[in-house]
Amino acid sequence: MTLATFITLIRLALIPVFAWTAIDYGCSVDAGSPEEALRWLAVGIYTLASLLDGLDGWVARRFNQKSLAGAILDPLADKALLMTGLFTATFVNWGIDWHLPIWFIILVVARDLEIIVGIWILYYLNRKVPIKPLWTGKVCTVTQMIAMGWIMLHFTAIPLIIPTIIAAIFTVWSGYEYYMMGYWQLPGKSRS
User: Fold this and answer.
1) What integer pLDDT is reported at residue 131 of this predicted model?
2) Does 155 reside within a domain?
3) 59 shares its domain with 103
4) HEC sequence for the chain
5) pTM over cut 0.90
6) Last residue in a domain, options 44, 77, 110
7) Whole domain around residue 10: which residue ranges?
């Protein structure tokens, strides 16, 4: 096992710890006595897992530790961490009476399912799936994390709907771009 893959496994292990801490904090809020140490612990665990994402990629590139396990586990860890964070930001009481709206989670899940089903269809038809990450996909992920952080950090200076709408725009935009990328790879399609 490479060091990069080991770091990715640590990230995966941190996800249920983050979820448990966030849910425990939400329960303390519901009980009327918020344990702020739990909120900050959840934020710290989430931040650590996010930073390790950059570290495992850097280690893999710097020390030529790219592997099939890493290629599978790294995006799995990315998506699992992001989705866990988004679900806790929607369904856990973070103490400021803010939640991501359910329509936003449905939008995020629909985009991800579109990409997964699209990859499956392309693989079935073409036996290859040359899909590369798009800048809109990266911005989509960042804006989703900002909306989630808005809640976890209790940032009330600007209404939550603002970062949520920005994240929704990039979620739809990147979903459209990935759809079109896949569409042009279907047999018989050409851009001429």
Assistant:
1) 67
2) yes
3) no
4) CCHHHHHHHHHHHHHHHHHHHHHHHHHHHHCCCCCHHHHHHHHHHHHHHHHHHHHHHHHHHHCCCCCHHHHHHHHHHHHHHHHHHHHHHHHCCCCCCCCCCHHHHHHHHHHHHHHHHHHHHHHHHHCCCCCCCCHHHHHHHHHHHHHHHHHHCCCCCCCCHHHHHHHHHHHHHHHHHHHHHHHCCCCCCCCC
5) no
6) 77
7) 1-77
